[in-house]
Fold:
Amino acid sequence: MCPPTYYTVRDVKNPFMQSAQAVDHDLAARQWTALRDAFTRAGVTTLTIDPVEDLEDMVFAANQVFVGKGARHPRFIVPSRMRYPSREREVPYYVAWFGERGFDVVDLELDANAGEFLEGHGDLIAHPGSSRVWAGHGFRSSKTGVDRFARAMEPEGIRVTPLALIDPTFYHLDTCFAPLNADAVLLYPGAFAAESLELMRQTWTRLHAVTRADAERFVCNGVAVSGHFIASHVSPQLEDILAREQLQPLLVDTSEFEKAGGSVFCMKTFLD
Structure:
C-alpha cells in the first residue's frame, strides 16, 4: 500500500472525478489507516511504498504493476503502461520497490503511440486457486496491451482471458468484477459485452449479479481474503450473497478515495 500523503483529485480521468468535491486530506489519512488495519485484522501483513510528491494517484497501488508467479519466474512483475502520463510517472517507483525485494521484471515494452496500454491489477485479476487471469480492456487497458500480456504469460503457464468493458463508469475491471472464491464471482453485468458475460457464465459456477446502484458504490471493488470481504458498502443483497459464500463483511469507509474513482481493491496489491 502507499500512504495518501499527496493524494488529491486534480483532473478528470474517470466519471467519478467529474463532480468530485475537494478532498478532506485528514479524513483520507484516517480512512487509509483504517483500511490498512482492516487488512491486518483479516490476517494480512502490510508493507508500504514511500509516496512521491506530485504523484497524487500513487495511493492506488493496484495499477502500476502486475504481480505474478510463473514457470519461468517464480516471483515477477509486469510494469504497466498507463493511459495518463501523470500516472505513468508512478510506475518506475513501483518497479524499483519490487526489484529491491527480489522480483524479476518482465517488461513488455508497450508502445503508447501504438495504442498499447495495460494498467496492472486494475484490469488484470487472478482467478482464485487457478493460473488464469481475467483481463479487462476497453478504457484504460487496450486490447492490444492485453494481447501482448497474454503472449508473455504463455511461457509462465498463465492463461489470460480477455473481457470487453463497455460502460465508461466501470473503467477498470476491478470496478465491476470481484472473485469471492474459486467458484463464485461478484459482478455488474451491464459493464460487460455480451460475449464476455457468456464466457464468464461458462467458467464460473456461481455468478452473483449486483445492481448498478450497488456497483456505483464500489461493492465490486471489495476484496475477499481469509474468510472476509473488505468493502466500503454492503447492501442487503450483497449481505445475502456473502452469507451464501461464507464470507464475513468487513466495512471500511473509503469515501474520500471514491472521489477519484477508487476503493478497497484499488488501494492495495497482493504480493502473493
DSSP finds eight helices and twelve strands in the chain. The chain has a mean pLDDT of 96.
